[in-house]
Amino acid sequence: MTPLTVTPAVTAVRTRRSRRRAVVLASLAVLVVALATLALTVGAASLSPGRALLALFGVGDAGDLFVVQRLRLPRLGAALLAGAAFGLAGALFQSTLRNPLASPDILGIAGGASVGAVTVLLGLGMTGMAVSLGAFLGAATIALLIWFFAWRQGLHSIRFVLVGVGFAYLAASLLAWMLASADERDAATALVWTVGSVADVRGAELVMLGVGLAVLTLAAAVVSRWQGPLALGDDHARGLGVATDSARVTTLLVAVGLVALATATVGPLAFVALVAPAIARRLTDDGGPALSVSVATGAALVLSADIVAQHGLLGVAAPTGIVTGIVGAPYLLWLLATHERRTRA
Amino acid sequence: MIDIPPTTVTPRASSSSGASRSGDLTAHGVSIGYDGHPVIEGLDLTLPEGRVTAIVGPNACGKSTLLRGLARLHPLTAGRVTLGEQEVTAMPRKALARLVGVLPQSSVAPDGVRVAELVGRGRFPHQGWFGRHSSDDDVVVQRSLVATGVADLADRPVAELSGGQRQRVWIAMVLAQETDVVLLDEPTTFLDVTHQVELLDLLHDLNREHGTTVVMVLHELNLAARYADHLVVMSAGRVVAQGTPADVLDEATVLEAFGLDARVVRDPVAGSPMIVPIGRHHRPDGTPAPDGSTEPTS
């Protein structure tokens, strides 16, 4: 029993950490299943959970099948997938830039995705894959511009955030201008691109979102190994053998892809990418980036926001993005009010 | 639960009692600058393997910049660095991180991270694509915690520790990298004198027990003189003097490098040279300056 071969304390810390993460993930999974059941059963045509479940697997009368499979399931899927994508993207941004404010919606990268998507949709008149591509190009362009203006012998996260906030305004103005000039488009389309909504997502878009999310999640799993060293700062990360600049670029590229993918499908759901990772980090509380937990919190957050948006908000159906904004804005204020104090501590 | 076979890791001391493996760390014509302003130009320097080297010099003399260049934390504008036969400058970063560990000047731990987990990040250069932690890694982490005297703190959040404890934890992380060379940039800053001495004792042990080459930038001249086998004195981006502290530290060198009038006496405890600054108020007119001449006070 020498300290060289027996490591109870070290192993215990590691075991406790992974156990806590497993418990958090399991609880979130239970929450998501409960919310999903709610989403499938509650609505204009109320179904019992049993009937909804049967309809999910194609058993039941035509009305049930239509309501569950055609109306509610795509909406549920869009909420879960987009929430997961925003949550993961936000977690990657925040931990890579070491700043809880550095989320793609605050930085204007989600705005860039909106501008890109709307340009393709309204300007070029194309749909489907091309819209996602446009969203990705828009998001990547904004990201590169922020990079260009924030780079001074390395990447300083506070400058990145400030420059990004500027570009967020630019993107919002561009978007407003494009939507104002496109008078033949109906209000609902405009709404999707300014506040975001998981309603009316069609099957093909959903498949693309799902496949894209799967691919980018794999990529995120590969780049996530840099997160531990990067979280210690550039000098430590380099000392541990990470080429920090290329690691950051690669990681942010994956995150930009996630934002573009989700924004192209459901629009910019405000604050999800900001709030979901913050909740996830509080739940795990181990100093890690909480990537997997952010995926789950993002999904749960958007799904509950959409349930509130459909049924809860003063009895009036509202776009999902309105609810996420109402939840997210106070958090942002709290974060801004306490950020300085905590970084100094 | 993870079973740890009792023979997974051979203690490093047995393979390396005193004998270094990687060779001298050498700068060949190294130039380093910030924003196009050169701080160091064409510097040649050899830091002997298996020794404790302290780099001292006044503020802004380029000592930290040199260390950052040697560790590849900052790019060289010219020249190259070798470790024995190996080209440090051309090596993949991860391979370098298995040979050279570095403790930068400022270290901020992420919120909520615990001591054992932070030290575990020192294992990164030894891990594969998905960074899985193995039980071998646990053994190394545990050994590093024991070596730095923070094993009892394994489960504590780093943010809750005192400055001295925190600095030991960061050093434990560098030790967990298991490198032949350890570079430290002012490791004793922000520590009180007790913790400074404790930390330097720790680095001395590391060097004597494992033959680790230790290179540190130090502010405190007297501690540098006491703990270093090899002392490098820098001023304005140049090496003014180098060698054993006893050979290097005399009143002329201190005056040249630091612009400081000082007496150099024998440290009553360690026998190393000890610098006693004179200052403006302790040289009454007529009192002979150290070299016997009378200098006017300005």
3D structure, described in words:
The complex is a heterodimer of chains A (345) and B (298). With 345 residues, chain A is mainly alpha-helical. Chain A is built from 14 helices and no strands. In chain A, helix 4 packs across helix 5 and helix 4 crosses helix 11. Chain A is globular and about 65 Å long. Chain B has 298 residues and is of the alpha/beta class. Chain B has ten helices and twelve strands. In chain B, the strands form three sheets. In chain B, strands 6-7-8-3-9-10 form a six-stranded mixed sheet, sandwiched between helices. The model of chain B is unreliable at 1-19 and 292-298 (pLDDT under 50). Classes of the chains: A mainly alpha (345), B alpha/beta (298). At the A-B interface, helix 1 and helix 10 of A face helix 3, strand 6, helix 4 and helix 5 of B.
Summary of the model, kept short:
Chain A is mainly alpha-helical and 345 residues long. Chain A has helices at 8-41, 49-56, 62-96, 109-123, 129-150, 157-181, 187-194, 203-223, 227-230, 234-239, 244-266, 272-284, 291-312, 320-344.
